[in-house]
Structures are given as C-alpha cells and as structure tokens.
Amino acid sequence: MAKRLMKGNEAIGEAAICAGARNYFAYPITPQSEVAEYLCWRLPEVGGIFVQAESEVAVGNMLFGAAASGKRVFTTSSSPGISLMQEAISYMAGAHLPAVILNIMRGGPGLGGILPSQSDYFQATKTGGHGDYRVIVLAPSSVQEAVDLMILAFDLADKYRNPVMMIGDGMIGQMMESVEFPEKYREPNKPEESGWALTGAKGRDSRIIKSLFLDPEKLEENNLLLAEKCKKFMANEIRHELYKVSDRNRILIAAYGTMARICQTAIDELEAEGVSVGLFRPISLFPFPEKVIHDEAVKKNIEKVLTVEMSVGQMVEDIERCVQGRKPVEFYGRTGGIVPTPNEVKGKVRELLKLTA
Amino acid sequence: MAGTAGDCYPSFSKRIIALVGGFGSGKTEVSINLAKYLVRSHNFPVTLVDLDLVNPYFRSREAITEMETLGVELIAPRGGKFYADLPILLPQVRGLIEGHEGMLILDVGGDAQGTRALGSMSGIFPQGKYEMLMVLNSRRPQTFDVVGCIKTMDRIAHSSKLRFTGLISNTHLIDETDEEILLEGFHLAREVSRESGLPVVFVSAKRGILDRMDTAIFGCPVLPLDRSLLKPWELKENQDRNQPNNRKG
User: Fold this and answer.
1) To the nearest whole angstrom, how far is the Cα of A42 from the nearest Cα of chain B?
2) Residues of B with CB below 8 A from A265's CB?
3) What's the domain range around A178?
4) At what angle do helices A56-68 and A86-94 cross, to 10 degrees?
5) Least CB-CB distance to A170: which of B57, B236, B243?
6) Region A332-351: what's the mean pLDDT?
7) Which of A205, A290, B39, B109 is the most exposed place for a label (fewest CB within 10 A)?
8) Are B196 and B153 in contact (CB under 8 A)?
9) Which of these ranges, A112-116, A321-325, B179-183, B241-245, has the smallest mean pLDDT?
10) Helices in A258-356 by DSSP H: which ranges?
11) Residue A325 pLDDT exceeds 50
C-alpha cells in the first residue's frame, strides 16, 4: 500500500480497525477528537460501531460491558477525560478484561489547556485508579510508531486480559506524517473461542465477570494473580530504543514520545559541536526498561543523566529509582503546552557540562 | 533544461482568494507561502485570514511573527483566545471581504466542517471577484482518486455555499515528497480538472523538488513552498519555536 499522509489521530483510528477492533466508545475532547471524527464514518464501512457516550464516565463503563463480551474494545480521550475513566479502568483490571485506552495528553492539571504535554506519566504508569493493578503503557514518538503500537496494544490486552494504555502528547495526535499500514488487516476476534468471555451459557457452565470479592482470601488471590501478570509484563514486554549511545557520551538523555525526537535534533547538533550525548527512549513506560537505563547510566563515560519531559518532572523519578544514586540525575522540562526546543535542550546540556555556547 | 522554480508564479486578477480542501491537503502552508510571495512581489497590502475554526494545532496563526515581519497582516484571535479550540469567527473578516483594498487570502479549515465558516458569509462575497481554490493532495486518504476529490469538493461547495473557480495541485508527503509523488498528484489534479471543468490554477511543492524539475511540463504557474509550520524537532540551529508563547494579545 502506498504511503499516505495522515494526522496521528486518524492513523490511530485506522490502526484499531487494522487490529480487528470494531467496538469504539468515546467522548470528544481536544486534542484527540479527530479519532472519533475519523471513526464515526470509517467504522460503519467495516461493520463496526462507534457510540458517543454522554461522558467519559459512561465511556469507561461501556468499555467494561463490551469488553466482557470478548470483543476487541477501545476508547480514546485526552487527559481530563482519562481522569474520569479511572474508576472503570480499575474495575476492568480487577475483572481481567482487555481494553485499549489512548490518551493524547494536553496540559493540566484540571481543564488545563489544549497544547501538548506529558504530565499524565504518573497517572498512566502508577495507575490512576484504586487497587493493586498495573496497566501496560506504550509511548510512540511518531505517527508510524503510533500505528504499530496501537495494533500491538490490542494483542497485549488480549494476551494478558488486562487494560493497555497508549499515551502520546498532543503532537502525536495532531501532527501529519507519512504512514504505512500492514497489507493484511485482521479479522475481528472470535469471543466464543476465548474461554472466558460472556457469549451465552448455552451448553456450558455460566461465567461471572466481576471485580467484587467479599471473601478476603478470594480478593487476595485475585490481587496475587494481578501481581503475577505484572511480573510477566516485566519479563516479556519491555521496549526501548537507544540513539547515538557510545562510550564517548558524556551525558545520557532520557526522554520519551515526541520529546525524544526533539532531543535527537539537539544530540545531532551537539555532536557537530564535538559534544557527545546519547539518548535512552523508553517505548514501554510500564513495564519500565529499568535494567537498560541502569546499565547505560552507570557506564564510566557518563557524567550525568538528563531527563527531559513536557512536565515539571515525572519520569525523572523512575530514572532516579533505576540509576540508584550512582550518577547525578538532572531534569529539564517545560509545561503548559510549551514544548522544549532543541536549542533549550542543548543549553541545558552545555550548562551541565559547564560549556559555553 | 530544468526551469528555476518560480519562473512562472501564479497571478490573480481577483482580490479574494479562499483556499479550501480536505484536512491535511496543505492549505495552511500554501496560504502562508502565497501571502509571502504576493507581499514581496507586489505593491499592495496582503492580508491573511486564519479561518481555521476546526484545528487546534498547526494553524496559520502560528506563523504570525514571520507574517508580520514580512508586512502581511494576519487576522486571527489574539490574547488568550489565540490558542482556543473554539470556532471563533472574528467580526473584521466580513469587513475585509466587503472591502476594496489589497489582496485577501482566506486559509479556511479542512473539509466541509471547516468551510461552514465561509457558508455563513457566502452572501457578502462579491460576485465574480473571488477565487475559491480546492487544494488537492493525492496522498490523503479521502482524496487519493478522482471520485474522492469530487465527493470532497461537492461537500465543501455545499457547506461553503460558494462556487469553486479552480484547483491547486499540492500533493505531498511533507519531507518525503519526491518528483514521482509530485507528478502523481499533478496527474490526479488534471483528471479532476477534466471531470470538474475547473482549471489547475497552480502547482505548489517544496522549493527543493521544484528546483530539480522542468516545471514547464506542468503548463501552469508554480508556487515554490518553504515550510513555515515546523515540528519542534525540525527547528534547526538556534531557531525558536513558532508559537508566540509570551506574546501579549
């Protein structure tokens, strides 16, 4: 298929169809609304449905119900809307239901603004809802990667029967980039083959899908099952990328999403000035590539680790945790929808190395 | 022999140029570049109206500093509403359409939803004194063939309540655009032209590609584009961001 030019939000919608998902529930919010705008005409073409709910709270509960039927389900929203869905995400995790949730992040807290941000890192990776559960969190840095990870997200959700989130700053949703889809689109999955979904109990024992366990032994059993899943995420689902990492690096930058691309530009330009900097980009924010960042950071040539985010500092806490105090961990970030420029990143690197421009 | 891009720039006998098209056809970059070209080469005032009431990012208002430096007046909400995703139609736009001075470029939001803003003002457009140009990009999902283009144009004509006067061939994949993609798009534009009876008013593409080509083959004017709305990682060597973050409205 020829390369097409697509807005991130549209491409993500098409990726869900490509993954065989046909059940979509959402409520519009900038900067994510084009996913719904795209899918409201595109889903009917492939026999799918889009229900625009009355609120994101309703979206969450629709997801829960539809997921229980074993079909691939998903929603998309932006920061304030994702906050409203947290209760349902906790319920789905507790009930072992697969679902894919996209957060195209905007500046917060509260209603905040509509420009790009990465300030929902804590909410996504440390779980925004209550209880002992975790969700897999994927963070693309380009429209093509958003397509690839969206398809993967459905597979991971099914594999672990657990909600999977993909998070991108507003830029991921709003920017246009060239993109290619797999030649072969998946057929919708078959819930009757799942072994757990509510498909009608004719000819078999009935099934109950719930997150309520009044017996403490049973509830602990469920929590331990969720903890087991979490161990499997850590063992099997770590994804990351390194850029220009070498034994000449003086600084190791940690950044994810489009922020990593800005850092790449800064790294290229610093290289031309004779300053060697490498980049660690986590693609799975949970499970976090703990060992990778630790092992890269402790290398002799690395003087400092610099975390760059569109927030006042969230992922930096994971970086500090993984580096275990063995190297100084510094931070640079902008918020409110202001995206750090390559120039600002370069300035911070020079400051850390006490270099003059 | 390869002609130098811009040997044959577009010229207009009409005062108002409304650029419409599907989402992502490239209306904004074409509008900004057209404004830049017109203000540099002519002695009349040029006004660019950001009439994009549907997109929250990558609107022509982001080029406000560049436009004002060049002497183009840019009409867009100011102050706190500069970044709003509300459909704000400024009152002075009507006055500008009814006016008589200089060139007026309207960068209209994408698709039929975006052109609704024009529809609300269609009654004041002076008959025969405006161009409404369809910006075509064959690499966009809804306008990759003649049927898709005509459908999109029908929807836009319906919601804008205005008549098309021409086409702009602006097929691109941003920085991955090459000669082949450009020609593929031009051929589609010609087919749409045959089908609709509208002329291809000009071909627009990145300057670098046009410089390598014999632009005479198009048989119509050519507008070379220099990208204005860069993504943050495309800002090179100490360039600052487009967004006038600290701007006072």
Assistant:
1) 11
2) 233-236
3) 4-196+208-236
4) 20
5) B57
6) 97
7) A205
8) yes
9) B241-245
10) 258-272, 290-297, 315-323, 342-352
11) yes
> Total structural domains in chain B?
1
Answer whether 0.90 is exceeded by the pTM.
yes
- A31 and A106 within one domain: yes
Are the CB atoms for A123 and A83 separated by under 8 Å? yes
**Cβ of B83 and A269 within 8 Å?**
no
B144 CB within 8 Å of a chain A CB: yes
- The answer to whether residues A220 and A265 belong to one domain is no
Amino acid making up residue A357: A
Structural domain count, chain A: 2
- Residue B18 is predicted with a pLDDT of 97
Query: Do the chains contact at A341 and B234, CB–CB below 8 Å?
Result: no
Same domain, A218 and A111: yes
List pLDDT tens digits, range B9-68.
999 999 999 999 998 899 999 999 999 999 999 889 999 999 998 888 999 999 999 999
Of A14, A176, A262, the CB nearest to B232: A262
> Chain A partners of B241 at a C-beta cutoff of 8 Å?
338-339, 341
* Contact with chain A for residue B13, Cβ under 8 A: no
Closest partner residue to B140 (CB to CB) among A5, A116, A170 is A5
Tokens of B25: 């056809």
Which residues in B lie closer than 8 A to residue A340 (C-beta atoms)? 232
| Of A179, A167, A171, A203, nearest in space to A284 by CA | A167
Length of chain A: 357
Domain enclosing residue B22, as ranges? 16-229
Residue-by-residue DSSP string for chain B: -PPPTTTT----SSSEEEEEESTTS-HHHHHHHHHHHHHHH-SS-EEEEEE--S-SSS-GGGGHHHHHHHT-EEE---GGGGG--S----THHHHHHH--SSEEEEEEPSHHHHHHHHHTTGGGSPTTSEEEEEEE-TTSGGGSSHHHHHHHHHHHHHHHT----EEEE---BTBT--HHHHHHHHHHHHHHHHHH---EEEEEEEHHHHHTS-GGGG-S-EEEE---S--GGG--TTPPPSS-TT---
Choose among B58, B139, B231: nearest Cβ to A5: B139
